[in-house]
Amino acid sequence: MDANHSIAFFDNQFQKQVSEQSFALNAFEHAALPYLLGSVLDLGCGLGNLAVEAARRGASVVAVDASPTAIAHIQRVAEQEKLVLRGV
User: N or C: which terminus of the chain carries fewer CB neighbours within 10 A?
Assistant: First the structure.
């Protein structure tokens, strides 16, 4: 699978999750969350579940993903909640 197909695959998955409002943290994200303090860089953040929750807890977050759906979701949440969170 080349990079463009991979991005399209995940973008389609993220579109489905956004439409279903499915944003639960997984077990790894729950375990990592207490350690995300100060400035956080989340590479390959997907829909940004962890990045959003870290920003809600006061971290300054830059969340990076190749999915336009994921970044649009993160930017929307950051704007609505006035979070220190930048999706790129």
Answer: N
Model-level pTM?
0.88
Q: What is the CATH number of the domain that holds 14?
A: 3.40.50.150
Domain that holds residue 57: 3-87
Q: Dihedral angle at the C-alpha atoms of 71, 74, 75, 77, nearest 10 degrees?
A: 160
